[in-house]
C-alpha cells in the first residue's frame, strides 16, 4: 500500500493511499503552492479590518506567487508585515508571516521556513489564534517529514491536534481535527495499517459532526472531505497487501464517495474529482471490468487537461494501457504505454531535482556566508560602482528593445493569421542538389503534401524511417526532397508542422488558451512541454506563454 499525495483543499489535506506500485513520493513544493494559495485566498477575512491597502498588497502577493514569482511574493509579504506593525494590526502581521513561512517551504528553503515558524508561533500564541497554531504545526510536521525527521514530524502532528482541539468554534474545530487525522494517515503508510484505518475512520467521524449550515465551514468543504475519506477507505480495503482486503467493502466506500459527488449541490474541488475517478479506474481495472475502467480513466484525463495533475495522469496512462489490453485493443494500449513511459521519465527527473534542491541550497548558503565574510573586508570603489550602474542601464535598455522586437514578432504572426498567409514550411526549392529523378521527386512531393494535409504529423511515432516506409521510398530520398523543397531537416520540418497546427488552434479556438502547456504539447505531438516550448520559440521567435498571454489581452 503506497502513498500518493492528493493536493490540499484548504489546509494540509494531502493524503491519498494508492496501490499502483509507485514508490512513496514527497511533493512538498506542489503541496505548499496549493496550500499557500488556498489559505491566502481567505486571508482578507482575518486581516486588518477596513484597511484596503493591506488587502490589495495581499492580493498582489497571491498573484505573484501563482505566477511562480516567489521572491517577489516574499518581498510584498515582508512589506505587509512592516506596515501591519506600523498601524498596530497584529492579525495582518500574523497572516503575512505565516504565508512567508509557506512560500519559503514551497521554494525548498526549509531552514528559513522553520526559523520564521517560530515567529508565527509567538504571534499566534499571543493572539490565542488556535486555528493558525494548528496550521503552523501541521506545516512543520510536513517539513520535518520531507527532511526525513519522522519522529519530529509526529511530535508536530500531535501539537497540531492539541491546538485544533482548542479552537472555539465547534464546526471549525471538527473540521481542523478531521484534517489532522486525515494527514496522519499517510504518516503510518507502510508502518502500521491498523493506524491507517483508525485515523481514516476518526477523520470521517469528526467531519460528520460539522453542521450543514454554518458560517465557518462551507457545506462544499465538508462534502469534499467526506468524498476524500470514503475514497481512501475504498482504496484501503482494495489494497493487495492489506490483510483486511475486502472488495465488497471497498466498492461500498467508492460508491458512497461517488454518491456524495453526484449529490453535491455546490462546486467540489476538481482535484478531488480527479482523485476519485482515478481510484475508480484502478478499482474496476483490478475487477477486470475494463470498460468501466476505461470510461473513468478517459473522463479523468479530460478533467486533468484544465487542472494539471501529472502524477494522476501517469497512473491513468498505465491503467488505461492495461485496460485496453484487457479488451484486446493492443494498438491503443501501446499508445497509453508510450505516454506513460515519457511522462514517467519526466517526473523522475523532476523528483530527483526536487530532492537535491534543499541540499544544494544549504551548501550554497554555507559557501555564500564564507564569501560574505571576505567581501565585507573589501570596500567597493566608486569606479566599480559606476561600472555596474552603466551595465544595469545598458541591460534595461537592451531588455526594453528586446521586448519591442518580440512584440513585433507577435504582431507579424497575428497579421499573417488574419490574412491566412502564415506558412513556416517554405514551399520554394532550395539550392540543395540531389541525384533523384524528377519523376521520383514529384511522387514523393505529392505524398508529402498529402501527409501535411492529413494531420498525421501529430502522431508521436512519426520518424524519417516510418514516413519513408509509408511513402514506399528510402530515407535518403525522402530527406533530400524535404531539404530541397521545404528547406529544413526532417526534425525541424515535423516540428514546424506541429507548431503551425497549435498556433491555428490557439488563434481560432479560444478554449485552447485555457489549457495547460503540458496538454498543448501533448495535443501537438511533442514528447514533453520543454521540447514544445523550445520548438515554438525556434519557429516563431516568441514563447507560447507570450503568444497566449497576448491573445487573451487583445481578446482576439
From TrEMBL:
Pfam families recorded: HTH_18
Gene3D superfamilies recorded: Homeodomain-like, Tetratricopeptide repeat domain
One MF annotation (Gene Ontology) recorded for this entry? sequence-specific DNA binding
Membrane-crossing segments per the record: 21-41, 377-398
Keyword Ligase set for record: no
Disulfide bond found in the keyword field? no
| Keyword annotations from UniProtKB, A to Z | DNA-binding, Membrane, Transcription, Transcription regulation, Transmembrane, Transmembrane helix
- All copies of the HTH araC/xylS-type domain together span 442-550
InterPro entries named among the record's database cross-references: Homeodomain-like_sf, HTH_AraC, TPR-like_helical_dom_sf
The name under which this protein is listed is Helix-turn-helix domain-containing protein
Amino acid at each position: 500500500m503506497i502513498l500518493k499525495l492528493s493536493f490540499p483543499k484548504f489546509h494540509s489535506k494531502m493524503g491519498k493511499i494508492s496501490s499502483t506500485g509507485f514508490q512513496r513520493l514527497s511533493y512538498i513544493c506542489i503541496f505548499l503552492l496549493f496550500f499557500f494559495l488556498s489559505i491566502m485566498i481567505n486571508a482578507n477575512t482575518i486581516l486588518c479590518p477596513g484597511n484596503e491597502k493591506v488587502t490589495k498588497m495581499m492580493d498582489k502577493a497571491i498573484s505573484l506567487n501563482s505566477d511562480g514569482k516567489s521572491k517577489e511574493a516574499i518581498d510584498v509579504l515582508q512589506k505587509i508585515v512592516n506596515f501591519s506593525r506600523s498601524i498596530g494590526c497584529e492579525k495582518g502581521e500574523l497572516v503575512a508571516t505565516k504565508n512567508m513561512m509557506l512560500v519559503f517551504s514551497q521554494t525548498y528553503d526549509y531552514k528559513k521556513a522553520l526559523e520564521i515558524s517560530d515567529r508565527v508561533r509567538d504571534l499566534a500564541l499571543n493572539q490565542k489564534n488556535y486555528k493558525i497554531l494548528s496550521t503552523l504545526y501541521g506545516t512543520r510536521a510536513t517539513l520535518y517529514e520531507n527532511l526525513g525527521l519522522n519522529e519530529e514530524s509526529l511530535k508536530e502532528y500531535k501539537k497540531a491536534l492539541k491546538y485544533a482541539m482548542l479552537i472555539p468554534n465547534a464546526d471549525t474545530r471538527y473540521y481542523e481535527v478531521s484534517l489532522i487525522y486525515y494527514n496522519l494517515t499517510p504518516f503510518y503508510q507502510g508502518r502500521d495499517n491498523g493506524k491507517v484505518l483508525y485515523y481514516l475512520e476518526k477523520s470521517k467521524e469528526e467531519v460528520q459532526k460539522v453542521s450543514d449550515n454554518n458560517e465557518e465551514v462551507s457545506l462544499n468543504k465538508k462534502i469534499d472531505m467526506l468524498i476524500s475519506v470514503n475514497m481512501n477507505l475504498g482504496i484501503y480495503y482494495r489494497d493487495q497487501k492489506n490483510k483486511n482486503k475486502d472488495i465488497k467493502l471497498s466498492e461500498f466506500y467508492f460508491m458512497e464517495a461517488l454518491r456524495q459527488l453526484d449529490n453535491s449541490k455546490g462546486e467540489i474541488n476538481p482535484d478531488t474529482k480527479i482523485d476519485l475517478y482515478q481510484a475508480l479506474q484502478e478499482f474496476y481495472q483490478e475487477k477486470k471490468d475494463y470498460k468501466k475502467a476505461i470510461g473513468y480513466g478517459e473522463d479523468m484525463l479530460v478533467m486533468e487537461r484544465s487542472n494539471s495533475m501529472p502524477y494522476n495522469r501517469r497512473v491513468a496512462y498505465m491503467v488505461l494501457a492495461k485496460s485496453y489490453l484487457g479488451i484486446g485493443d493492443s494498438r491503443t494500449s501501446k499508445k497509453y504505454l508510450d505516454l506513460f513511459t515519457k511522462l514517467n521519465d519526466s517526473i523522475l527527473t523532476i523528483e530527483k531535482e526536487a530532492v537535491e534542491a534543499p541540499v544544494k541550497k544549504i551548501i550554497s548558503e554555507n559557501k555564500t556566508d564564507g564569501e560574505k565574510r571576505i567581501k565585507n573586508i573589501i570596500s567597493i570603489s566608486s569606479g566599480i560602482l559606476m561600472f555596474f550602474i552603466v551595465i544595469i542601464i545598458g541591460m534595461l535598455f537592451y531588455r526594453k528593445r528586446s521586448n519591442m522586437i518580440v512584440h513585433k514578432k507577435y504582431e507579424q504572426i497575428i497579421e499573417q493569421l488574419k490574412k491566412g498567409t502564415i506558412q513556416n514550411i517554405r514551399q520554394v526549392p532550395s539550392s540543395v542538389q540531389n541525384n533523384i529523378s524528377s519523376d521520383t521527386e514529384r511522387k514523393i512531393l505529392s505524398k508529402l503534401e498529402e501527409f501535411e494535409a492529413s494531420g498525421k504529423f501529430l502522431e508521436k511515432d512519426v520518424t524519417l524511417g516510418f514516413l519513408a516506409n509509408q511513402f514506399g521510398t528510402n530515407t535518403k530520398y525522402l530527406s533530400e526532397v524535404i531539404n530541397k523543397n521545404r528547406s529544413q531537416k526532417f526534425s525541424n520540418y515535423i516540428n514546424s508542422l506541429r507548431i503551425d497546427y497549435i498556433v491555428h488552434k490557439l488563434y481560432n479556438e479560444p478554449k485552447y488558451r485555457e489549457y495547460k502547456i503540458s496538454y498543448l504539447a501533448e495535443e501537438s505531438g511533442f514528447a514533453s512541454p520543454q521540447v514544445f516550448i523550445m520548438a515554438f520559440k525556434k519557429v516563431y521567435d516568441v514563447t507560447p506563454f507570450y503568444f497566449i498571454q497576448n491573445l487573451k489581452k487583445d481578446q482576439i
